[in-house]
């Protein structure tokens, strides 16, 4: 028996034998030797050990050029899903390149790239961290990221780059050391909540144009970073690199870090807290209040807003009826707070557009799906995150208009979330919020891309397909994220079926081969050299 495992196309059919071969776990564990990236933990299924087992069973892997033939002549016209050239990407590990600019999990990533290419995935997304590249001000080390770009190019895949001007807790990736050092003596460069707790994983938007970074403004520093990236990666721009996401805030998203304090175990997350208490944000609020003839309103944020873990209706600000958010003061504060966020987004996206506008790459920005408490009138989670969106006001009009003005696309995470799987007490509706944002983007002719939050959400894959095939179709979807779980037997077969369902025709049952034939016949879809599996 001979079974060929080759790259899928719109008419590819993957055999059961191939699916069995892909039930291999690519382990993205830590190792002192960067070449030994496969975990040896008990109960983990590692690629190298699986190879040994296959050899003992009389199986061997070889590389072989396979002639291309149609997989099947359908007896009746096939019905294709209408996707209008949907582009599917998969996110690489967040720490693909980390401290020291070395490539982590290199062998696993290389194997993963080949597997994705075989499936017909168009490309991968690579997080590029400010804290990894610019450890000294104005000095950039792109070596690790260049190595990954070359790997992607050799694999025949496209690359979407996310420029990350924030830090990460897990995996631990910090801001540049020199920025952290400045923050130790000038904590006001970071956001602060009402208790004075600072969020140190990104800079406060209030310092965008203040010379707080050794005589330079953050906008000037971001500009130097982007210009260096453009120059260094010019051989890849427009060919391998087709898109760039500009980091806009916490987790790369356009928002305030309103939920940065973890919720207490076993409790529903509250509405978050306003992040306007660092010195520079308070200065902006004071100026805005004085300019509007209400200087007393510029002394601080709402005094009657709840804390992180308190239910929104526990204080008077977010109450559905008679809450302060509907008062003249509430409108004043929320208008200022949201406009500062939109202005920040405009500064960064206009910067990205001016730098990358003469290339063939598309520029994106990520807008979060703050869906908790969406079924209330006040929408507290959105308000604290910076979106003045309520039951009577569309807070995404200004956001979409800003993206349109800069000719940028919006990337929306959370397309795997459905209402039925949300906690009832949170009054959440990710589906309604997503529909509102997409409708607003369509009105302003802003193209939308999508992401899932993480693999394994209940009903997630079906929800993703639903969002892809809706009235407002998307042109790019990034599936997050490559790693041990992604390639595990518990997940990878379902992802394989997901990819096939997006690209293949729906055939009449009479046109499908029998189970026995499907398990033995070759999959022939490409004339390129690909993986070939034989039995001895």
TrEMBL record:
<dbReference type="GO" id="GO:0016161">
    <property type="term" value="F:beta-amylase activity"/>
</dbReference>
<dbReference type="Pfam" id="PF01373">
    <property type="entry name" value="Glyco_hydro_14"/>
</dbReference>
<protein>
    <recommendedName>
        <fullName>Beta-amylase</fullName>
        <ecNumber>3.2.1.2</ecNumber>
    </recommendedName>
</protein>
<keyword id="KW-0119">Carbohydrate metabolism</keyword>
<feature type="compositionally biased region" description="Polar residues">
    <location>
        <begin position="521"/>
        <end position="536"/>
    </location>
</feature>
<dbReference type="InterPro" id="IPR001554">
    <property type="entry name" value="Glyco_hydro_14"/>
</dbReference>
<dbReference type="GO" id="GO:0005983">
    <property type="term" value="P:starch catabolic process"/>
</dbReference>
<keyword id="KW-0378">Hydrolase</keyword>
<keyword id="KW-0624">Polysaccharide degradation</keyword>
<feature type="region of interest" description="Disordered">
    <location>
        <begin position="503"/>
        <end position="536"/>
    </location>
</feature>
<comment type="similarity">
    <text>Belongs to the glycosyl hydrolase 14 family.</text>
</comment>
<keyword id="KW-0326">Glycosidase</keyword>
<dbReference type="InterPro" id="IPR017853">
    <property type="entry name" value="GH"/>
</dbReference>
């Amino acid at each position: 028996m001979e079974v060929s495992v080759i790259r899928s196309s719109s008419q590819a059919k993957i055999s059961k034998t191939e699916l069995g071969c892909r039930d291999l776990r690519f382990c993205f564990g830590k190792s002192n030797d960067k070449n030994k990236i496969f975990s040896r933990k008990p109960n983990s299924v590692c690629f190298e050990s699986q190879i040994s087992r296959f050899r003992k069973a009389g199986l061997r892997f070889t590389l072989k050029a396979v002639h291309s033939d149609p997989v099947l002549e359908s007896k009746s016209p096939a019905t294709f899903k209408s996707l209008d050239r949907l582009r599917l990407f998969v996110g690489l590990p967040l720490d693909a390149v980390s401290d020291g600019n070395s490539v982590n999990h290199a062998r696993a990533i290389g194997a993963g790239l080949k597997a994705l290419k075989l499936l017909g995935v168009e490309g991968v997304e690579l997080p590029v961290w400010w804290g990894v590249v610019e450890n000294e001000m104005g000095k950039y080390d792109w070596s690790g990221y260049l190595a990954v770009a070359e790997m992607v190019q050799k694999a025949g895949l496209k690359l979407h780059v996310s420029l990350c001007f924030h830090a990460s807790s897990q995996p631990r990736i910090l801001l540049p050391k020199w920025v952290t050092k400045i923050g130790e003596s000038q904590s006001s460069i970071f956001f602060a909540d009402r208790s004075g707790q600072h969020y140190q994983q990104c800079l406060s938007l209030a310092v965008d144009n203040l010379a707080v970074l050794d005589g330079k403004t953050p906008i000037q520093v971001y500009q130097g970073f982007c210009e260096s990236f453009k120059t260094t990666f010019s051989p890849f721009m427009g060919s391998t690199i087709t898109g760039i996401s500009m980091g806009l805030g916490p987790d790369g998203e356009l928002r305030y870090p309103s939920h940065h304090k973890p919720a207490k175990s076993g409790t529903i997350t509250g509405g978050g807290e306003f992040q306007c208490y660092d010195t520079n944000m308070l200065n902006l609020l004071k100026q805005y209040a004085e300019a509007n003839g209400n200087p007393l309103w510029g002394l601080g944020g709402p005094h009657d807003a709840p804390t992180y873990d308190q239910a929104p209706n526990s204080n008077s600000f977010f109450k559905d009826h008679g809450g302060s958010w509907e008062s003249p003061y509430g409108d004043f504060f929320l208008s200022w707070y949201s406009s500062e966020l939109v202005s920040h987004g405009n500064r960064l996206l206009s910067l990205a557009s001016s730098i990358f506008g003469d290339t063939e790459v598309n520029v994106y920005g990520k807008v979060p799906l703050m869906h908790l408490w969406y079924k209330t009138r006040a929408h507290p989670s959105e308000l604290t995150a910076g979106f003045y969106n309520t039951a009577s006001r569309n807070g995404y009009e200004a956001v979409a208009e800003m993206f349109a003005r800069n000719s940028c696309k919006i990337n929306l995470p959370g397309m795997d979330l459905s209402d039925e799987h949300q906690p009832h007490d949170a009054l959440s509706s990710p589906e309604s919020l997503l529909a509102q944002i997409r409708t607003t983007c369509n009105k302003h002719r802003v193209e939308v891309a999508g992401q899932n939050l993480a693999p394994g959400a209940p009903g997630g894959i079906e929800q993703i397909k639903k969002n892809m095939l809706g009235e407002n179709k998307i042109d790019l979807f990034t599936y997050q994220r490559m790693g041990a779980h992604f390639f595990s037997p518990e997940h990878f077969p379902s992802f394989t079926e997901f990819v096939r369902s997006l690209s293949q025709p729906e055939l009449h049952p009479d046109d499908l081969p029998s189970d026995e034939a499907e398990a033995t016949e070759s999959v022939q879809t490409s004339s390129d050299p690909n993986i070939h599996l034989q039995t001895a």
